[in-house]
Amino acid sequence: MQDVSTTQDRTRGAAVAVPFNLSRRKSPLENVIEMLLFVCGVVSVLTTVGIVYVLLTESLAFFTHPDVTLIEFVTKTRWQPQIGEFGILPLINATMMVATIAMLVSLPLGLGAAIFLSEYASPQARKTLKPVLEVLAGIPTVVYGYFAIGFVTPMLRNIFGPDVVQIYNVAAAGIVVGILIVPLIASMSEDALSSVPSSLRQAAYGLGSTKFETATKIVVPAALSGVLAAFIVGISRAVGETMVVAIAAGAGPSFTFNPFEAAETMTGHIARISGGDLSYHSIDYLSIFAIALVLFAITLGLNIVSGYVVRRFREVYE
Amino acid sequence: MSINMQQSSGYLPDGDDLQKNINNRQTQGNIWRNVFLTSLIVALVILVVLIVDILNGSFGLIAIQNKVDPATISDQPIETLSEEELVAILERNMQTSGSLRRLDREEPFTARDQAELVEIVETEVIGQEIVASWKFFDSVFNSAAIQAQIAEKYPRAIIEWHSWISWDFVTSPMSAIPSQAGISTAIMGSLWVIFITMIFAVPVGIGASIYLEEYSADTKNPMLQRINTIIETNINNLAGVPSIIYGILGLSIFVIALAPITSGVAFGVNDPTTANGRTIISAG
């Protein structure tokens, strides 16, 4: 009896153990592949480490340079490396102006388009219109840059007069960056809006809501996390946009609040200086790393905030 | 809106009030529907404007003028002259410039055929140049004004239609003369960047996404689990880093630090890291 039971136990144990054994008995090749794939994942981390390391060491070299002090860097309103003046405010100010104008253009357009596509358009219309809108997102930004300088700037100069609007100006760059972000915001918001379950809409209609009331009081609040995330990613994109501002916003840092004047953004300045003929380890060269560090911190901060917003305001529907 | 406020405070409209309320809300709804539709249309119109603007600049009238009037060189049309006559013209008119000797050294004039010599006379002696150009819409709607203006300013100029996009444009290299400039070198550069980017980004990107999707969940090792979370958050954040930052990373690491190794393709290597994060996102 005992023998039988033990054999039974043993067979049962073996039967249970088989799947575990299968998963444990990997061929060496399998391990190698897994290691290789793991390394692929780690490369991305190394990239980040590389960015942070380069930015930090070069910025450190910049700040320990006798001509530079950290306090002047964050408070001075002039950036003129030739005469040793390093105040990052004009660059940040121009970046913020471009981003603000861009968001003023892209928020209403993007959200409006998203609400129309998700709430009003027929499925057929949505199927054709959304890809068309996404074509806008696929156009290289340098094309948008020439669109800004070749079309938007002359248009602004026609409207407001060539005395008011300079040839290179922040407004044209901001408007075009806004246009460039519209598809991003429209597409991300539309995804968020259409993932709201239709039972919520049906309930709102059942209570007598109009389509507009359903859209703005039920669907948008329910999809708020996705919509907010789209906005923040949009801002981050506007801050990091390079080609449009390098072409259309002007080449020379200036501290101005007039959007019709030329001013250089952080990205535009880095592009101009690093593209130019500069000697390495000169103060100019080091200064672009300090700007890049600030830029990196801003965009990383915005990304983290957007990730937090998505988690914090997410409404989960079963 | 005021009626809505009353509603929420417990007042229920009735009769005429109710009808008014419903009408108001429906008008409001219709207005906003049109606002949303407008924003979509504006976005699409901008796309159309962008494309039309590019096409507008790609075709149009140009005014071509000869630097030297062909009639002063020869009393017969250039194309009909014999080879000896053409060489004589070249020698007569290009004494002062060094290019005569340079061209002769490349290939002796006596060895060239008639068509080739005509071409040399046209470019070197007559020297066609584009004195003015117009965009497409200008060319179509103001063509009379353009003709008049050109007739006054450049009496010898010929006005003709020109497409700036042509096979020559795609195949010729860069040039300081706009009418002869092409983008073949730029296309080669782009293709190289794409090629090098793909070599690097496709295996790494797809590898990372396979790892994260298929393997990372299996591990029981807490250390590995943490690394996996770091990798995942990190990839999400990498995709949001502006490309200019990758640019100066490339500048400082690949172009300067590794200059001896990568001197040839340095700028090609600039970009793979940019695409890396994004490919991972799209593949994952």
Fraction of residues in H or I helices of chain A: over 70%
The SS-based structural class of chain A is mainly alpha
The rough form of chain B would be described as flat
CATH class of the largest domain in chain A: Mainly Alpha
Number of domains of chain A: 2
Distance between the termini of chain A: 53 Å
**pLDDT < 50 runs, ≥5 residues of chain B:** 262-284
Greatest chain-chain contact:
A-B, 71 and 61 residues
Average the pLDDT over all residues of chain B and give the rounded result. 73
Care to give the gist of this entry?
The complex is a heterodimer of chains A (318) and B (284). Chain A is 76% helix and 1% strand.
Describe the secondary-structure layout.
The complex is a heterodimer of chains A (318) and B (284).
Chain A: H1 2-24, H2 28-63, H3 70-75, E1 79-80, E2 85-86, H4 89-120, H5 123-138, H6 141-160, H7 170-194, H8 198-206, H9 211-222, H10 224-240, H11 243-248, H12 266-275, H13 283-313
Antiparallel strand pairs in A: 1-2
Chain B: H1 2-8, H2 15-58, E1 59-66, H3 70-73, H4 83-93, H5 99-106, H6 114-126, E2 128-133, H7 136-141, H8 143-153, E3 158-163, H9 167-171, H10 184-215, H11 222-239, H12 243-257, H13 259-262, H14 266-269, H15 272-283
Antiparallel strand pairs in B: 1-2, 1-3
Helix pairs in contact in B: 4-6, 10-15, 11-15
